[in-house]
Amino acid sequence: MYHPLPLYIGLRYTRAKRRNHFISFISLISMLGIMLGIVALIVVLSVMNGFQTEIQARILGMASDATLSGPYGDLSNWRELLERVRKNKAVVGAAPYVELQAMLVNGSSVSGAQLRGILPKEEDQVAELREEMIRGNLDDLVAGGYEIVLGQELAAYLGVGVGDMVTVVTPQVSATPIGIMPRLKAFTVTGIFAAGMSDYDRYTGFVSLADAAKLMRLGDNVTGLRLKLTDVYEAPRLSVDIARELGGAYRVVDWTQQHQNFFAALRNEKRMMSIILFLIVAVAAFNIVSTLVMVVTDKRPDIAILRTLGASPARIMGIFMVQGTTIGAVGTLLGIVAGIALALNVELIVAWIEGLFGIHFLDPNIYYISKLPSDVHASDVVRVAAGAFFTSMLATLYPAWRAARTDPAEALRYE
To answer: What are the beta bridge partners of residue 19?
Structure first.
């Protein structure tokens, strides 16, 4: 007598009775369907977050948080600009670079590559290239030495190792007695790195800053400055602030713009996977509709008696909304608990399955990432739970409305 009538009766209807076990079984199936849908969503979104975090870390290990370049190309006053940028509180480190497109030749093997001229000591401030070295030493890149560090896949394609020679052919041309010839220079391979990203391992090489500038005929100029910022996730805002502080005379591009298409594709893929997997929850919600329709049909005499005792249509509607919402709430709660538990341990579970059946879901010979990463985001869990619960509530509206429209005289005619 101390409970609201719709809540009290709705919770009673949720529990199994001897004469309606089938309805209770359908309710259980609906609850499990919502739970499994939420588990699938949380696990898949967490794995996709893990892959994105892993790839992002590998990209940022090689790429800078932002790059600063001149409005019309090269930077001539880069030393002065370097000192000004380093005084900015948002900048942790800065390093000059020269970038050029070239062809690398070794015998009959030819490959396009993007070469970057660097100062090894300065480069340590903005990237983790030194940690990616698997052979050789980055400090061997000295001015006038004409030495080069290649990505692992690029070196394998060209068939070269440390100590071998490769010919670098640049887009610049030279006038010779026999006509116009492309500029080329022999470089000694002094190191090989493995970043774990095909874009870098297959198509990137590093040379001395002075050697790159000489190949490009830049003199004392550089292509730009690479910047390391205090907060990589605030790079878009900080880049704008740096450009504004420099008077708007320079172009500052952050890492999200440099890899905009790639991360946009990841976001779209995550969004589409969420929509597809949410259909599992939608199917479970339809089961709630069918469950409540059967309950309303079974409880027509009870509804009629309640109406004759003075229960309003709103209260009748509330009874069945409580029942359906309870199914959705319990399924959502169980799904959240199971989903988070599975997402946090998915790497161990996958490793156990691989060991049990002797298979590899991510073959290290094919994929750069050999383990299944998982990164649970609270925002994803909240959105999934809210969406599932809201869908469950919507599923109760039509059956509850049908119950509220029950005619007491018609329902009690044959009782």
So the answer is: none
CA–CA distance from 357 to each of 343, 351, 353, 354, 373 (Å)? 21, 10, 6, 5, 20
- State the number of CA atoms in the 13 A half-sphere of 316 facing the CB: 28
User: How far apart are alpha carbons 193 and 237 in whole angstroms?
Assistant: 32
Do 73 and 218 meet the contact criterion of CB atoms below 8 Å apart? no
Q: pLDDT value at position 19?
A: 53
Q: Distance between CA atoms of 297 and 32, rounded to whole angstroms?
A: 23
- Stated pTM of the model: 0.71
Structure tokens at 42: 């949380």
**Tokens 């893990």, located at residue:** 50
Amino acid identity of 238?
L
Query: For residue 5, what pLDDT is reported?
Result: 62
Helix-helix angle 397-404:313-344, to 10 degrees? 160
Q: CA nearest 184: which of 166, 199, 196?
A: 166
Quick count: other Cβ atoms within 10 Å of Cβ 403? 25
The answer to whether 400 and 288 have CB atoms below 8 angstroms apart is no
- C-alpha span between 153 and 157 (Å, rounded): 6
pLDDT in tens, 299-328: 777 778 777 777 788 888 888 888 788 888
The partner residues of 96 in beta bridges, in order of sequence, read 225
Tell me the C-alpha distance between 41 and 44, whole Å. Answer: 5
> Are the C-beta atoms of residues 81 and 228 closer than 8 Å to each other?
no
Burial (0-12, 13-18, 19+ Cβ within 10 Å), 355: exposed
Among 391, 321, 372, 349, residue whose Cα is nearest residue 38: 391
Q: Which helix (H) or strand (E) holds 179?
A: strand 179-193
Pairwise CA distance, residues 372 & 352, whole Å: 12
Q: Give SS3 for 148.
A: strand
**Segment 63-111, tens digit of pLDDT:** 888 999 887 778 888 888 999 898 888 899 999 999 999 999 998 899 9
Q: By the 8 A CB rule, do 170 and 216 touch?
A: yes
**DSSP per residue, 244-309:** HHTTT-SEEEEHHHHTHHHHHHHHHHHHHHHHHHHHHHHHHHHHHHHHHHHHHHHTHHHHHHHHHT
Q: Which residues contact 43 (CB under 8 A, 6 or more apart)?
A: 339, 342, 343, 346, 374
